[in-house]
């Protein structure tokens, strides 16, 4: 599974992009997005998902819904 950014809540602060160990987060349009193919949920690098950890807006970086 991967994580996603709720675009309507994203403040485009950029904190998540620099914390992502897999380079899955990029700025697109007016918000940040997570490339689901690159997202590893930080497994093997951190115990928690760094995007969700550093995001200033709660519940903006969430598990991807199918």
TrEMBL record:
UniProt keyword annotations, A-Z: 4Fe-4S, Electron transport, Iron, Iron-sulfur, Metal-binding, Transport
One GO MF term attached to the UniProt entry: metal ion binding
InterPro entries xref list: 4Fe4S_Fe-S-bd (IPR017896), 4Fe4S_Fe_S_CS (IPR017900)
Source species, domain of life: Bacteria
SUPFAM superfamilies recorded: 4Fe-4S ferredoxins
Cofactor: [4Fe-4S] cluster
Residues of the 4Fe-4S ferredoxin-type domain: 1-30
One Pfam family hit: Fer4
Record flagged with keyword Nucleus: no
Keyword Isomerase: no
Name of the protein in question: 4Fe-4S binding protein
Organism: Oharaeibacter diazotrophicus
């Amino acid at each position: 599974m991967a994580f996603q950014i709720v675009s309507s809540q994203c403040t485009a602060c950029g904190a998540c992009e620099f914390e992502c160990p897999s380079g899955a987060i990029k700025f697109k349009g007016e918000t940040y997005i997570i490339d689901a193919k690159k997202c590893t949920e930080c497994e093997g690098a951190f115990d928690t998902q760094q995007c969700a950890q550093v995001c200033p807006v709660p519940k903006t970086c969430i598990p991807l819904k199918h």
